[in-house]
Amino acid sequence: MATTRRILDLLRNGQPGETVTIQGWVRTKRDQKEFSFVEVNDGSSLAGLQAVVSQDVPGYADALKRVNTGASVELSGTLVESPAKGQRIELKAESITVFGEADAETYPLQKKRHSFEFLRSIAHLRPRTNTLGSVFRVRNACATAVHNFFQERNFLWVHTPLITASDAEGAGELFTVTSMNLDTPPRTKSGEVDFAQDFFGKRAFLTVSGQLEAEIMAMAFTNVYTFGPTFRAENSNTSRHLAEFWMIEPEMAFCALDGNMELAESFLKYVFKYVLETCPEDMEFFNQRIDNTVLETADNIINNEFERITYTDAIALLEKADKTFEFPVSWGLDLQSEHERYLAEDLFKKPVIVTDYPKEIKAFYMRQNDDGKTVRAMDVLAPRIGEIIGGSQREERLDLLEQRMADFHIPAESMWWYLDLRRFGTVPHAGFGLGFERLVQFMTGMQNIRDVIPFPRTPQSAEF
Ligand code: 4AD
Ligand code: MG
After folding, report:
1. Residue 328 lies in a domain
2. Do residues 158 and 17 both lie within one domain?
3. Is the CB of residue 50 less than 8 Å from the CB of residue 77?
4. Atom 23 in ligand 1: which residue has the minimum CA distance?
5. Quick one: which ligand is closest to 170's CA?
6. Half-sphere exposure (Cβ direction) of 129: Cα atoms closer than 13 Å
7. Which of 110, 253, 259, 393 is 20 to 30 A from 95, alpha carbon to alpha carbon?
8. Which pLDDT value is given to residue 168?
9. Range of the domain at 86
C-alpha cells in the first residue's frame, strides 16, 4: 500500500519513482485520446498535482465518466518527471477511486473566474477556489506568526471572555446576550426590560475587546496577549468592517507608549517576514492576480521604519494637503479613513503611527497628557487599509481615571475591579489591538474584508 501524502509535500519533496497515494478534489480534467489529465488539489498548496490516468487503469472508463471538476478522488501510482512546463513531477496513476461526484451542470465552481461577490453567496464552496485557498493559508500563517512572535518574547497567551458586562470601548456597539423570552421579557415597575432577572443577573454583551481583562492579567504576568473573536454591532457596510472579527491585544506592564510603538512595529515586520518565508507561492499569486504592489508593500514593511507623528502634526499635514476630502479636517475631529489613507498611502508611503489624540475622541482608559487636551493614544495607519492597530498607554493613576470615567458617565461601581488595579500595585502599562482581518487584507491585497474570513458576519448577513 502506498502511503497517502499531501500534495504540498509531494510538490516540494516527491521524487520520481516513489509510489504514492493522493486524495483531493478535481480542479480540471482534460481528456486525450488514450488517457486523461486530472489535476487534483487537497488544499495544502496553491498548485495541484497533475495525474495522468491512462486506459490501462482498472475501471478507467467508468471512473473518468464520474470525474468532473469538484469531484473527490483518491489516486495511487508512481511519481514521474513531468514533461510539461511549470511542474517538476506528475503522478502516473495506477488506480483511481471516486468518493463523490460533482455534477457538471449544477456544481457552481466551473472553470471561469467568478466575482468575489458571487463567491460570497457560496461561502460553503469558495474555500475550494485558488484565491480563497491562498487567503486561508496566509491567514493560517499569520496566526502562527502571531503566536510565535509573542511566545518567543515570553508573553503569556490569556483567554478573555466573550460574554461580558462592560463596554470596553464605550462606543455602544454592543450585541446583547440574553436567555430571556423575547416575546414576554420580565419588566420592571417602570416598564423597562428587567435584566436583573436575566441569565447573568445583569445585562450582558458579546465583548468588543479583551483589553480590560488583559490588563488584569498583565498586572500579574507583566506581558500578555489575547487572540480571539470580538463583536461589534456597528452598522457600517464598508470593505473594512465586520460584526465579528478577530483581534490580537498585547498588554505590557512597566511599559509606556514608546515601548508600545516599538512592539507594534516589530510585530508587523515579524508577521510579514514569516508569511513571505512560509507562503511564497500564495504571496506571488496575490501579487500577480490581486494587487501588483503586494510584494513591494511587504518588502517596504520589513525594511523601512514606520513614520511617527502626533495627531496635531497629522492635522496640520492634512490641512496643507493638495487634495479635497469628503470629511472635514480640523483639530478635535477624528481622522476618517480617507485621511488615514492619505497619510500612509500618498504622503509617507508606509505605515504611520499617529499619537496623542484629543481626549474627547478616544476611550476613557487612555492616559492623559500634561497638556490637559490629549491622551497617550496611538493608531497605526497602513497604506490601502487605514487604521490597522489602535492602542494606548493606559491611565494608571486612580484619581485621573475616576475623573475620566465621570466625564464619560461610566458608573464607578460597574468597574470597581478595574479601579482596584489602580489601587493595588498599579504600574504604567500599555497595549494595542490589531484587527486580524485587516492584517490579512493588508498582507494579501484583498479589497474586501469579507473575503479574508471564512464566514463573514456583516449587517443582514449570517447565512453560512
Ligand atoms: O481601535 P480599536 O477599537 O481598539 C480597541 O479595541 C482597544 N481595546 C485595543 C487595545 O488597546 N487593546 O480596535 C482595534 C483594531 C482596529 O485598529 C482595527 O484594526 C480592528 O481592531 N477593528 C475592526 N476590524 C474589523 N471590523 C471592525 N468592525 C473593527 N473594529 C475595529
Ligand atoms: Mg481605533
Report:
1. yes
2. no
3. no
4. 435
5. 1
6. 23
7. 110
8. 78
9. 3-100
| pLDDT single digits (tens) 430-459 | 999 999 999 999 999 999 999 999 999 999
Asked if the model's pLDDT at residue 2 lies above 70, the reply is no
CA-to-CA dists, residue 365 to 132, 354, 435, angstroms: 38, 18, 19
Does a structural domain hold residue 89?
Answer: yes
- Report the domain count for the chain: 2
Ligand 1, atom 30: closest residue by C-alpha: 241
C-beta 48 within 6 A of ligand 1: no
Same-domain check for residues 14 and 158? no
**pTM for the whole structure:** 0.96
Residues 131 and 13 in one domain: no
Cβ–Cβ < 8 Å for 23, 4: yes
Domain assignment present for residue 272? The answer is yes
Does the pLDDT at position 142 exceed 80?
Answer: yes
Whether ligand 1 lies within 6 angstroms of the CB of 234 is answered as: yes
Residue 169: CB within 6 Å of ligand 1? yes
Q: Which residues, 6+ apart, have CB-to-CB distance to 336 below 8 Å?
A: 325, 326, 327
Query: Ligand 2 mean position to 389 CA, how many Å?
Result: 7
What percent of the chain has a predicted confidence (pLDDT) above 90?
92
Is the pLDDT higher at 113 or at 136? 136
